[in-house]
Every structure is written in C-alpha cells, then in structure tokens.
Amino acid sequence: MKYVFIITIVLFCFFTQQKPERTVKENRIVSDAQPNITIEVDKEYEFIGKLNFVLFNSAEVERYLFAVVENDSIKKMLTFQFEAYLPDNEYTYKKNYNDSILLGDHWFGKENINAVNVLHIRNFIDKWKGKGLEHEVTYGYLEENNYEYEDVVLSDFLVNYASDYRSELVVAYYENMSNFGLQPEKIGLDDKFVRVTIGGKENSKNDKSPITRLKQNMMNSFKIIKE
C-alpha cells in the first residue's frame, strides 16, 4: 500500500507539473522557465496585449505584444512568442543558423529581413484558418481592438531554442516600410507581392540603408537582463 501511495503521488506531480509563470510589469517580461529570462522593453513601446492559444493542436503559445501607436495606428510592433510543444507529442524545434547573437545569457539565431505585404498575412489566414496560426490570432486581436496597420512592413526575427529543442522564444519586430521613406515599387516590388527576403549584411556601422536601420531599431527596442 505504501508503494502504491508513493507512485500515485509521483504520477500526480508529473501530470500536474506547473506551467511556466510569466508576468509583465512596467514593460518588463519575467519568465521563470522555457526560458528563464527577463526582458526589458524600451519605454517608447506600450504593452497592448497578451495572447494565449494552441498552434496546430501541437504547441502551447503565449505571445506578448508591444507597439508604438499613434492615433490607433501601429507604427512599429515588437512581439515575444513563448512556444512549447504539448506533452502528447515528440516534436522538436531545430533549425541551423549561420549567424547568432548572445543577448544576456541567451543565444539567439538570426533570421533574414523580409518585406511583408498584408496579402501574405491574409493568404496564410485563409489557408490555415482555425488552426491557431499566430497571424490569425494576432491580426484578429488588433482588428477587434480597432488598431490600424499599414499594408507593407519590414520584419526581422531572433529565435532562442531550449537545450531539448522542445520550446522556443521568438522575438519578432515589425516596422512600417513608410517609416523609412520607402514604397514597394522603390525596391522593385509591385502591389501584388506577398513576401520577399531583403536581408543582407550592412556595409559599415555608418550604413543608413533600411536593412541596417531596421536591425538597429529592433536591437534598441528591448534588452535581455543578464542574471
């Protein structure tokens, strides 16, 4: 009887394992697991919402949204997506990055910069409607709360994986192309384009190209507090 009791307690603890706790206060995100990290967002940005959803019935997601807003119009948006596979599957996140950066005590892989048309978002939503795609959940939330946004943005991403590759943190930064005095046709895009990679290495620290400026704006928008 004693052993049955002990096994029951062990199983109970296993199946009721607490989820990571995360809080937002004064533009600071504190996460106690997956990963254990503290993120401080620049005061230029306001916290506009937290989204909880299940992605493709396989991963649990918490997405934190910060934005620079003028008259209900989003000029820049910064998101932190904490994502972890559910215990009923054995999927893993794994992607090799040729370039990475150490922020605080955490390594992040660098993604390419993209020009993204709202057509891309709508196509994704139509294709995967009801599957918990972050595009659908996020843009649905923005529209429900009467936020406006431009059709074309530049985007940049950083990705941190857990050592077991079962969870990840994705930092996504979006900024209106018009912030850089650009229109799609100026970089060879017509109004039918959906998503184009425009990423590349800057030529120098004094480079004023949109790519360099976007990267600088992203890195100035937040910092990881070193433990």
Descriptive overview:
The termini are far apart. The protein has helices spanning 2-15, 118-127, 134-144, 210-220, and strands at 22-25, 28-32, 36-41, 46-55, 59-70, 73-85, 100-103, 106-110, 114-117, 152-161, 167-176, 195-197, 222-224. The protein contains four helices and 13 strands. With 227 residues, it is an alpha+beta fold. The strands form two sheets. Strands 4, 5, 6, 7, 8, 9, 10, 11 and 12 form a nine-stranded antiparallel β-sheet that branches. Mean pLDDT is 88; it is low at 2-16 and 201-207. It has one domain (2-224).
What's the rounded overall pLDDT mean? 88
What order do the SSEs take from the amino end to the carboxyl end, as H and E? HEEEEEEEEEHHEEEHE
Helix content: 10-25%
- Spans of at least 5 consecutive residues whose pLDDT stays below 50 are 2-16, 201-207
